[in-house]
Write a sequence for this structure.
């Protein structure tokens, strides 16, 4: 999995509704990243999985996770 830092900007000047909307957008971006990464992982063959240090069983477990789970 990639470890992209999705975090709320440290700007106190944003109104509460804007902060909430930014938080929702960041959560959606993280979910999409997980979905895309797991989809790519599912397409790798055994040789490539070995290259990145994952076994087929571990990769299958990761791919089976829903997008909202880290």
């Amino acid at each position: 999995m990639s470890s992209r830092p999705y975090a709320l900007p440290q700007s106190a000047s944003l109104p509460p509704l804007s902060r909430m909307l930014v938080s929702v957008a960041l959560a959606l971006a993280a979910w999409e990243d997980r979905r895309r990464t797991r989809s790519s992982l599912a397409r790798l063959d055994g040789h490539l999985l070995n290259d990145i240090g994952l076994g087929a069983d571990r990769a299958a477990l990761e791919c089976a996770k829903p997008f909202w789970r880290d």
